[in-house]
Amino acid sequence: MTSTTEPVTAAHGRPVAPSHGALRPLGLDDVSIEGGFWGDRQELNATAIIEHSEHWVERMGWVANFDAAVEGRLAADRRGREFSDADVYKVMEAMAWEIGRTGNREMDARLQALVTRIAPVQEADGYLNTKFGRPGQEPRYTDLQWGHELYCYGHLLQAAIARGRTKGDDLLVETARRAADHVCDVFGPGGIESVDGHPEIETALVEFARYTGEQRYLEQARLFVERRGHGVLGDIEFGRSYFQDDVPVREASVMEGHAVRAMYLAAGAVDVAVETDDSQLLDAVIRQLATTVARRTYITGGMGAHHEGESFGSDFELPSDRAYSETCAGVGSIMLNYRLLLATGEAKYADLIERTLFNVVAASPAADGEAFFYTNTLHQREPGTVPSDDEASPRASSSLRAPWFEVSCCPPNVARTFASLDAYVATSDAQGLQLHQYAEGTVRAAIDAGTVAVRVATRYPADGLITVEVTETVGKEWTLSLRVPGWAASGAELTVAGETQAVSPGTVTVHRAFEVGDVVTLSLPVAARWTAPDPRIDALRGQLAVERGPVVLCLESTDAPTIASVNDARVVPELDDDNGHVTVGVRPLAPVDESWPFGATGATLAADAERVTLVPYYSWANRGPSTMRVWLPVAGADSVVPG
Amino acid sequence: MTSTTEPVTAAHGRPVAPSHGALRPLGLDDVSIEGGFWGDRQELNATAIIEHSEHWVERMGWVANFDAAVEGRLAADRRGREFSDADVYKVMEAMAWEIGRTGNREMDARLQALVTRIAPVQEADGYLNTKFGRPGQEPRYTDLQWGHELYCYGHLLQAAIARGRTKGDDLLVETARRAADHVCDVFGPGGIESVDGHPEIETALVEFARYTGEQRYLEQARLFVERRGHGVLGDIEFGRSYFQDDVPVREASVMEGHAVRAMYLAAGAVDVAVETDDSQLLDAVIRQLATTVARRTYITGGMGAHHEGESFGSDFELPSDRAYSETCAGVGSIMLNYRLLLATGEAKYADLIERTLFNVVAASPAADGEAFFYTNTLHQREPGTVPSDDEASPRASSSLRAPWFEVSCCPPNVARTFASLDAYVATSDAQGLQLHQYAEGTVRAAIDAGTVAVRVATRYPADGLITVEVTETVGKEWTLSLRVPGWAASGAELTVAGETQAVSPGTVTVHRAFEVGDVVTLSLPVAARWTAPDPRIDALRGQLAVERGPVVLCLESTDAPTIASVNDARVVPELDDDNGHVTVGVRPLAPVDESWPFGATGATLAADAERVTLVPYYSWANRGPSTMRVWLPVAGADSVVPG
């Protein structure tokens, strides 16, 4: 592993702050998104998503569980699933980043009020959980498979890190520290030699070690990563692969089992590997992710092909209609890819972050920020029904976004990601700045020669033009790096000082003695394009997708009122992109009414193609019940018996 | 509904004996399968499957639960899931039919021994269940969603019916009668106004009413059918459609939810409809099944496209690799289709019985009868691992047949179906005999003019020639009917008295004054043929299957040692059938190693095709771990970006 950066201090509002790596993270103090696609999402988060989430964790009684604990009303009065404490912590993490980002004082008061309801529940030895350990409850740590106690601590620690890195130590951080000490006391050497069924504590402990400087937390995280995969958890109907307890992390060749668990675990493993200089462990995760991306990832960046077990499928098993692609797995993938970006500096990790942000995370919240997708299907066959505004929904069976879920990990995961999104935009190293995600805003960083800063102006992804103006510089040469996305295989151009050159996917660098006002422009070929699937993906044979820049498009029935069903659409290869208004030619399948569906003699299509608009996948299902598909069957590709 | 038959009495070893309908059932006393494909399965059942099942219900402690109940050791000593009593009853039903079929005295003693262990558990009011109602157990009927108490009674009644119809009343029948009375007392008018989460009691109560003549049981079944669909059960995460409690049976348009539940319920609804002359209810089920067969059924006859909830998917959602196609859903489909065959006389129901018997039920047991498929996938992507001989397996995650399951409904369901299979072969009416399934053996029936009988000689399905010789006749004209399967669209021929004519799918009749020794031959075109899927099935686009007569074939990796994976096979349209040795031309996909699977530029195939043998789907996975696919991608059908 390269080690070109200096240790960072516990400041800057950085969600992730490795002691070393190829790139240095920047934080909310260094980067500011100001408008545009992501600025709009941050505004929605600030004005709707976070408050909506606060409202629902109260309404569901998940915060009141803490009150009930203090008042001695547990087990009787407990509500929600075994992991509901964690959803409260995730909302608090989102609030903490948001307060750090904007200085919202009212929200700060609300966060402090939440902390004062939670902290008193902590027991003398640091244990903190509303579900276990009281009369009428199961004893502590008796159900590590499903109990989620360490998972809940993990999110408590993440909330505390957000608070500490933006405001400094307070009661939340103290509470987290006592919990982390407790975990080390109970699960350290000589203690319970096991792990949590749901990873999360691993990455949280490493980050808390980075924040506090306490190496004991890192060592505990290392123990959790190393123990896993040796059958330390009980066997379950899904099999131990469900929680990655069948193969040790450093021996696995691909991600498997529950996708969120796999991603969180891998993020923790990278953290441990970086801090312990364990290149074998780091390489193992890199290899697993590479295979997973090549064979087990949807075009949206979504992960998880099975509803059952919310899990990865086999290689190339990527059904559109049963895509699980949990929003939280998308968040987990971004966590993992960001850590690998910092460790290696390789653009492919920023590529997948971009794809996943636009096509999974941005797809989850409704336009009003008050309803969410938990799963992110790529093919909605039936319009389905509108979920209740008043009740939490089952996690995966609603076809429209729902306001909340009985298992509601996803909405607060979106909230904490949006609130801390600035950090994912850019990094620095000793020699300069690297732009990874393109958003309107500013980036400022200390490099060896001093402080440099740029302002980015762009309408990306609506438009491919990205203008970077130097606003602060040093009196010598430094390097500005820009990512050319993997999808921009041809047509990308970089202009520096009036000179334009074609550039290829990867990282392009401009090394010069910049002056304030210097402008570098990157032009990316965002016009709509066809994409064909790997021939080994059975579910996609004879189909094509349309992408525009980093955005996956889809056919939504709302835009095709004359076609009976998106299921019956067949596209002809006529694609038009009029400044972002994308249309394709569609020839609908003629109605068929056979009593047995095997023995077809060919598909009969309407004679003339009609033009139908495609819309960004992230925007679908905002106009009422609809059907939708990302992958479009091509006219003529249906099976015919050889004659 | 037509009503051409007279009431049948409680004899003849008939599993189903409606009071009227288009066709009269025959039973184990009337039909005898003697050798051939199904004779071999009955022999395997007699010598292996039934004993294996007896052994495992003992070994798992599911019979011992009854002993523990008598000895006051419950709740402490109970083992198995909440429905384990039912698996014991199903094994008993299989034994009862087998004893009726063969007169096996040793098995009769074993069955009686089982009955004497179970009967004493019944309480004074008729309640009988090892899971509920004792100190330390949940109270009776407090969990109708998941408790399966009525489901267990249903299988108790079915076992008693098998016993009563083959041997007459005994302690098992008495026990069942007390249980049925209890159900009417508790769930009748003024009682608990609900149903069981898992249907089965409905069809069992109607048949028990037919057996005993007690109309109260029929009325109770009617109440259960009518109550369902009005949200009488609690809501669950899967949604009420899981147990068909969202839409009343007579209003539903298609089968939905848990496939076994749907089939058992529909069978009960047909029974109620027939006995109460409720043509609206009968038509509703007929309509639902027609849509289900046209849109939600696998080429194997298998039902259930989702692992999650073991349920039907949407229309045309039929993924091969995630096919659930539970063996029990196949059995349930045969139950339903047989009842509709009796009610309507339509050949299409016998068609689906044939398809499902050959390609679902026959696929479940291993060649040695000591391991079973619970689910029946149509595409095995990875060879997987050999299940333990010593332990029960998870129901759906093993890729090879397992000796037993924690949830082990399927093996005894296969056993009771094989043991009573004779009944499905033929029926009678006032004018003659109808042959529905072609098996070596004899059929004898009383018609208006007297008794007629035939001997069937055939190697079907290996060969298409079926020879029917009259062995007993009456002194006037009568009608022999033969089913021409739906798959025999062209090439079927009937020969009567030396005259051959082409016949089409459906029912062909020969009406004449038969003499003993007269021969009618039906020749079916069983040679291997290509089958194309409905263009609306996304999972099958660009693929073809090969069928041979009623048998679905598959490509198993064992037969293609030179091809890296069946996933990479591409077929060319060269199909050869050399007396049942079927081969196709295969051009394997060249190895590809892309880092991202979207953006393919086309599939590269090996230049030359090699010939690979296809084997019957029912026989796969008998030669060690393998990969397998029923649907074969066609060379040239992979997606390519238009350019």
Automatic annotation (TrEMBL), chains A, B:
Biological process annotations from GO: carbohydrate metabolic process
Domain Non-reducing end beta-L-arabinofuranosidase-like GH127 C-terminal: residue ranges: 529-633
Protein's name according to its UniProt entry: Glycoside hydrolase family 127 protein
PANTHER family with a match to the protein in the record: DUF1680 DOMAIN PROTEIN (AFU_ORTHOLOGUE AFUA_1G08910)
Domain Non-reducing end beta-L-arabinofuranosidase-like GH127 middle: start-end pairs: 433-525
Keyword tRNA-binding assigned: no
High-level lineage: Bacteria, Bacillati, Actinomycetota, Actinomycetes, Micrococcales
Start and end residues of each stretch annotated as Disordered: 1-21
Molecular-function GO term, any one: hydrolase activity
Residues annotated as domain Non-reducing end beta-L-arabinofuranosidase-like GH127 catalytic: 30-421
Domain of life where this protein originates: Bacteria
Entry keyword set: Hydrolase
Pfam families to which the protein is assigned, alphabetical: Beta-AFase-like_GH127_cat, Glyco_hydro127C, Glyco_hydro127M
